[in-house]
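Ops channel
N.P.: pipeline sanity check, posting one input/output pair.
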């Protein structure tokens, strides 16, 4: 029986996986939201958010190269904090991924597609998720090959916006003075910058999904840090340039009140049909759903192999060597969520779920450094995980109470799920402890 995944992911494929997942579809609406919170200096909160993201990314780089397992965050937390913590983190990550795919499938069937053709939402969602699942089953190399093409289209659209915005500035129709305007009527410079940084931070999440591919990377200890930080800095550079041209080219209130702020820049520059951006946005949404679907299925596979989910989810398709059962089940749950229309209320809890994961990962780095006989791996300075943990605690304070109520329900289910696994592990010792050999050198 095949019991390992194929190591077919190169540094280049991993770079494009992470870049495509970070860029996502959010950037097309993010600029307006940041302008509303921070003012015309959109680049400043983007820069702060990039710094916050790099802190937690450093912790991920250390753990992914030290323990290149498909279980990712759940595996790290389980080793450091025990099976219950691993179950909770895995549940939060898996729940966020499945809901994200459902939300993206709904987004794909919405206004951007309607700009091109009118089709029933349910039909689009079913066809869309089925196609993504089949592509995922076909193989990790094939899936990431499609991601490279989609990411290039997505990145090309953003580069086009940067070029058009620069043209607006060159021809004298922009106001560079807006780039130094920080603060709103409600908040001063510091408060507005932090409020904008929280929103901007959301746009950088996505890098955490890549750790679930560590088992399929040809040389994770060498490739992962390069691909991770290369993708983060590339996305950060693109975001900063978008923030500069959008902030200078468009009045702040116009950006803040637009649901398609980048399209406003394109219209101001002229020469590019609106439908072109509809296509680019659809590619971005589809790419984000594909990458998140890959993450969810690999996480479910990894947790099943660790004994935290039914063993059937750990089955691998002979020949293709992809986790076909995990792919089918996660796609089916996403389809159910998308068709029931509950995705909108659940989608707002995604960030809260991911902050639980990020906090646990940063804490895990500190605990797992006590293990002896470590193999060679990437290591960040000791202050980085501490700062990463502090940044998560800070961002927790910026989450609205309404979101906490909804997110608390999901986290509560995760806690119950973790308790069941902890009881089962205790009853089946020593096998229960072997799933996550915390504080051991193995």
């Amino acid at each position: 029986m095949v019991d390992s995944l194929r190591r077919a992911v190169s540094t280049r494929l991993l770079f494009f996986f992470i870049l495509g997942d970070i860029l996502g579809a959010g950037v097309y609406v993010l600029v307006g939201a940041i302008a509303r919170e921070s003012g015309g200096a959109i680049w400043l909160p983007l820069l702060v958010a990039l710094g916050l993201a790099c802190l937690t990314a450093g912790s991920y780089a250390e753990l992914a190269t030290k323990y290149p397992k498909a279980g990712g965050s759940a595996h790290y937390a389980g080793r450091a904090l025990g099976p219950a913590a691993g179950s909770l983190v895995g549940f939060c990550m898996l729940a966020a991924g499945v809901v994200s795919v459902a939300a993206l499938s709904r987004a794909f069937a919405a206004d951007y597609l309607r700009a091109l053709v009118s089709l029933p939402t349910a039909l689009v969602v079913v066809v869309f998720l089925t196609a993504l699942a089949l592509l995922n089953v076909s193989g990790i190399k094939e899936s990431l090959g499609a991601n490279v093409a989609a990411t290039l289209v997505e990145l090309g659209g953003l580069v086009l916006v940067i070029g058009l915005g620069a043209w607006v500035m060159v021809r004298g129709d922009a106001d560079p003075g807006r780039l130094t305007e920080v603060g709103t009527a409600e908040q001063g410079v510091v408060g507005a910058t932090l409020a904008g940084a929280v929103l901007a931070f959301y746009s950088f999440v996505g890098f955490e999904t890549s750790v679930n591919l560590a088992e399929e990377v040809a040389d994770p200890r060498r490739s992962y840090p390069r691909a991770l930080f290369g993708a983060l800095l590339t996305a950060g550079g693109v975001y900063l340039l978008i923030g500069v041209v959008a902030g200078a080219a468009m009045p702040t209130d116009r950006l803040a009140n637009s649901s398609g702020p980048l399209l406003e820049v394109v219209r101001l520059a002229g020469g590019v049909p609106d439908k072109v951006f509809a296509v680019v946005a659809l590619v971005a949404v589809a790419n984000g759903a594909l990458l998140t679907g890959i993450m969810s299925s690999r996480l479910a596979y990894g947790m099943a192999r660790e004994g935290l989910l039914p063993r059937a989810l750990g089955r691998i398709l002979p020949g293709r060597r992809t986790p076909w059962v995990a792919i089918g089940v996660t796609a089916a749950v996403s389809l159910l969520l998308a068709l029931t229309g509950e995705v909108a209320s659940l989608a707002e809890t995604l960030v809260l779920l991911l902050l639980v994961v990020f906090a646990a990962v940063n804490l895990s780095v500190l605990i797992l450094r006590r293990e002896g006989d470590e193999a060679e791996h990437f290591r960040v300075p000791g202050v980085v995980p501490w700062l990463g943990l502090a940044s998560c605690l800070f961002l927790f304070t910026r989450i609205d109470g309404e979101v906490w109520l909804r997110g608390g329900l999901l986290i509560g289910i995760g806690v119950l799920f973790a308790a069941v696994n902890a009881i089962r592990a205790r009853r089946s010792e020593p096998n229960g402890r072997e799933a996550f050999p915390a504080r051991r050198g193995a």
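N.P.: looks fine end to end. The chain is about 70% helix and 0% strand.
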